[in-house]
């Protein structure tokens, strides 16, 4: 799989990012309609966690097949890989109560199908805008510069399991209120940690506002970095 993807400037329409979806694609569709999203020219980028918790996790692959929808790999996508690999660090009971029952109760062939597709998602991606690059990762950027992140995911630096875990699991930036930001990129957009409202630390934007639960989905228009709340 390509662990890093680059997207060229959208010269025809608008680009948006959205927080964790967690199997609530119908809710997301309603937000897109209110935002005037036009799938003929617009694009939507997801910070991952497409599956688990919601009733429509099985639609994740249908959405990934849409030419205008793109996502990075979240920790809930990683859980499908861990389960099929028999990872001893995976607590299956915790996985189920975290919303993974739809996957655990699926036939083995279907599990393999979903895990294979979700395993192909990049760990990070970047999008060209008229005002500079915008990056997306699921939880946190483990490096002070976007160029180092790019080099690491493209295999130019030695792999490190501890670094890999930061991308999809770390809440350290929020816990420490680290506003140092990430150099070499206009903004980095992340999810993973549900918040009552979006929060910015330096140039890192946390946009999981729990649209999959009791909150609402937040869209960010990448060219202007303006929020569209749903």
UniProtKB/TrEMBL annotation:
<dbReference type="InterPro" id="IPR004843">
    <property type="entry name" value="Calcineurin-like_PHP"/>
</dbReference>
<dbReference type="Pfam" id="PF00149">
    <property type="entry name" value="Metallophos"/>
</dbReference>
<feature type="domain" description="Calcineurin-like phosphoesterase">
    <location>
        <begin position="17"/>
        <end position="193"/>
    </location>
</feature>
<protein>
    <submittedName>
        <fullName>Serine/threonine protein phosphatase</fullName>
    </submittedName>
</protein>
<dbReference type="InterPro" id="IPR029052">
    <property type="entry name" value="Metallo-depent_PP-like"/>
</dbReference>
<dbReference type="InterPro" id="IPR050126">
    <property type="entry name" value="Ap4A_hydrolase"/>
</dbReference>
């Amino acid at each position: 799989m390509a662990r890093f993807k680059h997207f060229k400037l959208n010269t025809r329409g608008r680009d948006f990012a959205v927080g964790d979806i967690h199997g609530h694609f119908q809710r997301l569709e309603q937000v897109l309609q209110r935002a005037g999203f036009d799938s003929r020219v617009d694009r939507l980028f997801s910070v991952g966690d497409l599956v688990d918790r919601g009733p429509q996790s099985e639609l994740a692959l249908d959405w990934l097949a849409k030419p205008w929808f793109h996502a990075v790999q979240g920790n809930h996508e990683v859980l499908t890989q861990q389960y099929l690999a028999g990872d001893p660090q995976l607590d299956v009971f915790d996985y189920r109560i975290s919303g993974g029952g739809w996957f655990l109760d699926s036939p083995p062939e279907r599990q393999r199908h979903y895990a294979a597709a979700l395993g192909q998602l990049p760990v990070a991606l970047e999008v060209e805008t008229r005002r500079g690059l915008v990056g997306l990762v699921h939880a946190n950027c483990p490096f002070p510069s976007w160029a180092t992140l790019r080099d690491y995911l493209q295999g130019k630096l030695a792999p490190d399991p501890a670094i890999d875990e930061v991308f999809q699991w770390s809440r350290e930036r929020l816990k420490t209120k680290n506003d140092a930001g990430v150099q070499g990129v206009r903004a980095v957009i992340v999810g993973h940690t549900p918040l009552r409202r979006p929060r910015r630390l330096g140039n890192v934007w946390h946009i999981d506002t729990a649209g999959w639960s009791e909150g609402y989905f937040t869209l960010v228009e990448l060219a202007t970095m303006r929020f569209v709340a749903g």
